[in-house]
Automatic annotation (TrEMBL):
InterPro entries according to UniProt: AcetylCoA_hyd_C, AcetylCoA_hyd_C_sf, ActCoA_hydro, ActCoA_hydro_N, NagB/RpiA_transferase-like, Succinate_CoA_transferase
Entry protein name: Succinyl-CoA:acetate CoA-transferase
Record bears the keyword Lipoprotein: no
Protein keywords: Transferase
Annotated family: Belongs to the acetyl-CoA hydrolase/transferase family.
Organism: Roseateles oligotrophus
One GO MF term: acetyl-CoA hydrolase activity
Length: 501
């Protein structure tokens, strides 16, 4: 087969992953590609982990700052975390070993809205980016790069890093070429201009990433699949959540607040999100569109069935079966999918303009509508805020979903006060559990509390929540958002003490 490294100068830089990893210095800030298990470098992080392990064994401490698009995979986050090679991680991760290190206080983690990352680097808020390690699907003769299955922050990493290392993955489908829209019109304040994107499918940039060839210090050829982890079949709880949501959307259409094709959908990742998409695929709405971060199985299926006309995202996140479908029918999907930098897929200006229906999962909500997406019992990180804040604050309608209980019923996901706040009561409009849906739009805190308890809380926890609200209304110094501050976290402390709320 002919090499995908078509630029002669870059062919001179071909080397093994081990040799490339030697070029990354200890203490470097490294910007890697990768977004929800797609398009991350596969060999260099593992080679770097081996080097770090050897250096540490020889008594020479070696750690890096690791920046990505979002979560990656065991070959990247997992490999580097297992050798304790990451001093500081940003902006989002979901790796079990990293999570353990972060919660043990051994890895610093800066959890940033995904739309903020690129601009923070341009502003100089995060320090210097030393090396970019980017997976691409090919290199053109003139040195432009064919992006892979995710775009993430790659444009910014390539522009901002002093040095660039490329992993050219020949397993990525050549049909990816032309599916990307890389926008080069972003300016810095005070020179910013409007982003000219007014329809989900608009192409406002170019299909390729630019690359300053003089900065490229290594090119490594790989032939490795993306992570592609399977989804669970929708269970009764996620199906019930999907059912409530679809009934609600039908009601909004009836009231004339949404058209029969709704508005562009944003959907978080995970099993509930996938169940909602499966529900929409069977549901009454036609000619739907999506302006989202991650295109997962459910959306691929909706494109296939014709329910979904077009989808914009920054990354694919597919199960092995869906990845196979994508491969087989890439000619069909490339007409209907565009992948953009995450600063555009998650851009507040564009989200507000398009008027998205944002649907994200959460850890817990409180009776007044504050949402915690990231922390367990106030102090342990689960994953991170990801794009949920970008979408929630700026959407036409912001929906948060969770089962009403966790850990077999020992935890109520509806609590008096959330133990950590990611989305405030001002950014949260609709809360859904398998019990029902609370539409909080236009309601005062006291009205919201009543609705959240009666519609969303598990029946086992409703009496205690009602009791809290009643006593707060008697004992709180102010009656706008009545709380008993001595008691507001007692559900969490009871769980930590006794193993149930
Ligand atoms: O833990 O596996 O140890 O039992 O949290 O919960 O129910 O499997 O739900 O996988 O959809 O994840 C919010 C974490 C939900 C995810 C969150 C425990 C529960 C389980 C996972 P175990 P489920 P999901 C676009 C949008 C933030 C980023 C985001 C997330 C584990 O959706 O990371 O929205 N969101 N991005 O047992 C203690 C509670 C709990 C609880 C659940 N109340 N207390 N533990 N759990 N509720 C995508 C991107 O930005 C990339």
């Amino acid at each position: 087969a002919t090499s995908r490294v078509q630029n002669p100068a870059l062919r001179q830089r071909l080397m093994s992953a081990r040799e490339a990893a030697e070029l990354i210095p200890a203490g470097a800030n490294v910007g890697m590609s990768g977004f929800t298990g797609a398009g991350y470098p596969k060999l260099i992080p593992q080679a770097l982990a081996a080097r770090i392990s050897a250096e540490n064994a020889a008594g020479r401490p070696f750690r890096i700052g690791l920046w990505t698009g979002a979560s990656t995979a065991p070959e990247l986050d997992g490999a580097l975390a297992r050798v304790n090679g990451v001093e500081m991680r940003l902006p989002y991760q979901s790796d079990p070993t990293s999570r353990k290190l972060i919660n043990a206080g051994q890895m610093e983690y800066t959890d940033i809205h995904l739309s903020h990352v690129a601009q923070y680097v341009w502003f100089g808020f995060l320090g210097k980016l030393d090396v970019a390690v980017i997976e691409v699907a090919g290199i053109l003769p003139d040195g432009r790069l064919v992006p892979s299955t995710s775009v993430g922050n790659n444009k910014t990493w390539l522009e901002q890093a002093d040095k660039i290392i490329l992993e050219v993955n020949s397993l990525q489908n050549p049909g990816l070429e032309g599916m990307h829209d890389i926008y080069y019109g972003t300016q810095l304040p005070p020179k910013r201009v409007p982003i000219p994107l007014v329809q989900v499918g608009d192409h406002i940039g170019e299909p390729y990433l630019h690359c300053d060839l003089s900065k490229v210090i290594a090119v490594v050829e790989t032939h490795q699949p993306d992570r592609n982890s399977a989804f669970a079949e929708p269970d009764a709880v996620s199906q019930a959540i999907a059912g409530h949501l679809i009934e609600f959307l039908q009601h909004e259409v009836k009231l004339g607040r949404l058209g029969p094709d709704l508005l562009p959908l944003q959907s978080g990742v995970g099993n509930i999100a996938n169940a909602v998409l499966a529900g929409l695929d069977q549901g009454p709405f036609e000619h739907l569109t999506a302006y989202t971060e991650v295109l997962q199985d459910g959306m691929l299926q909706m494109l296939k069935s014709g329910k979904l006309a077009y989808a914009s995202a920054t990354a694919l996140s597919l199960s092995p079966a869906a990845a196979e479908l994508f491969e087989r029918e890439i000619a069909f999907f490339r007409q209907r999918i565009v992948l953009r930098p995450q600063e555009i897929s998650n851009h507040p200006e564009v989200i507000r303009r398009l008027g998205l229906i944002a649907m994200n999962s959460m850890i817990e909500a409180d009776i007044y509508g504050n949402v915690n997406s990231t922390h367990v019992m106030g102090s342990s990180i689960m994953n991170g805020i990801g794009g949920s804040g970008d979408f929630a604050r700026n959407a036409y309608m912001s929906i948060f979903m969770t089962p009403s209980t966790a850990k077999g019923g020992a935890i109520s996901c509806i609590v008096p006060m959330v133990s950590h706040v990611d989305h405030t009561e001002h950014d949260v409009q609709i809360i859904v559990t398998e019990q029902g849906l609370a539409d909080l739009r236009g309601l005062s805190p006291k009205e919201r509390a009543k609705l959240v308890i009666e519609k969303c809380a598990h029946p086992d926890y409703r009496p205690a929540l009602r009791d809290y609200v009643r006593r707060a209304a008697e004992g709180a110094p102010g009656l706008h958002t009545p709380h008993l501050l001595d008691e507001a976290f007692s559900w969490h402390t009871r769980y930590l003490r006794e193993g149930h709320m």
